[in-house]
Amino acid sequence: MKQYLLSLFTDIQDKFEYLDVNEVSFDIPKIETHGDYSTNIAMLIGRKTKKNPRETAQEIIYALRYDPTIISKIEVAGPGFINFFFSTDYVCKSISKILDGGTSFGRSDVNKGKRANVEFVSANPTGPLTVGHGRNAVSGDTMANLLEATGYEVDREYYFNNAGRQMRVLGNSVRLRYLELLGETTEFPEDHYQGEYIADIAKSLFEKHGNALVNEDPEGLFKAEAEMVIFNDISNTLGKIGIKHKVFFNENSLYDDGKISGLLDEFKNRGLSYEKDGAVWLKLSELGNEKDKVIVKNTGEPTYRLPDIAYHATKFDRGYDFIVDLFGSDHTATYPDVMAALDELGYDTTKMKVMIHQFVTIIKDGKAVKMSTRKANYITLDELIDWVGADVVRYFFNMRAISTHLNFDLNLAVKHSDENPVFYLQYAHARICSILRVTDQEGLKSDATKLTLLITDEEQKLIKKLLRFPDVVESAATVLDAVILCAYLEELAGTFHRFYTVCRIIGSEKELAEGRIALIHAVKLVISNGLGILGVTSPQKM
RNA sequence: GGGCCCGUAGCUCAAUCGGAUAGAGCAUCAGCCUUCUAAGCUGAGGGUUAGUGGUUCGAGUCCACUCGGGCUCACCA
Fold it and tell me: Which of A104, A118, A490, A537 is least buried, going by the fewest C-beta atoms within 10 A?
């Protein structure tokens, strides 16, 4: 529909000095009487020509040569809007486009042939995934789905570090719990990992090796076992909500293949780094950032910054057209350093988009649950999934804009009731499936040639809503946020439920019934395509 | 103190590039099942969009300041 309107304006572009097709946009008015689509172009032109926008709008309408079987009315309204009304016949017939599109309706190929990399989760293997990681995991996977829906070939990537201080502490935490099992009294430092999972790992080591590990290095088997168990746990949890990364990128590999030392040399040769107090500093203040930062500590160990830069350089070197990083707001301060360095190294950072999601607050019994990874008083993502189910987890994390704080109300999520929006959508789908089972028994078929009979208000609204789906997917993919899609699907479900209460299928005249069956097939398709992008299932029955 | 994010109905949140009368859900109240799934539908009440000023044909949206909340400012990641 939008494309058709745009083509009309392209045809008349030459007739108006200030008319630029690139400036013409079409909105869907909030109020029905303002038409199916509306444009403010006459007001934009009016600003330049100082002419009354309403007059300009009228001149444009006279010039437009449109097919009256498609558009039933064009009018000037308000301060100079041009409103377009599509004919009911055209709206009805558009349903076949949806049915023909099938599972690919809503998808586009605007980015066909391009490759994208989405990095998300990227938690180091020091403990189970928390609810906060859950938001990252779900948002990242959904972003990847959205990009795929616009034609990208997407690699989902997980970056991790199994070296460094945190992992040493992890190994030692396991070692101390192990020694406790042997009856030794040990001091368990407060900065060590307090979680029960540490004791579990120690216990399994004790069962396998008895007391043979008394003198084992904390960085030896203790660390290795912990890493393996925890990683296994992480990927199991991700698997439960349908997430599978294609690439697990280990920070260590950057050392092994010389990327780190090469980068260090390059910084030095280009005069971008210097030594001070036994450490190596990067001249970020000269690259437009606030202050210089250490890239190699006086212990000789790099800070996270150096491998981070090297890592992102590999993403560019691997030839991606679009690179997405997703992390929580606690990392806000870190990425400008990486970006500045990459810029200086000559990488085109406009190809890269850093997405930051705000924190998740778990609300239980009306109160916020305080969480700390080290102290282990947190709710794990795994527990959450077991508790409320994968669909609810995925939907709850998708239904809020990632830039806003998310309150995850456990008491609400756990309710399998009408307070829970995900069921509202799934119910619409299940309801359609149920109708189709019954109509099938009655021998009624879907008949797209009867679509022009769908002229009631409820039917027309429903069809127009369905036709918006590709635009919604495209917008959601552009901003990399599924919240638009969730809002759309909830509207669509509502529009369907209203149709359902007013427009009966069984009991209607056969031709009308068969046209309506074609319509609900289209609704079913759009709901399940939409839920599919969100990673939520579309149940046949509820 | 500096940077980033946020503040919209009692609660949780929408609002397309700055568009026309700020919308949903929940909660509250009043209705609707002998008929395709009532996990549904209809109706009612509920707002100085935190505040003040500015930009313009038009501001929840952009700018400045103020207030309130979160995150962050490491030789941790």
Answer: A104
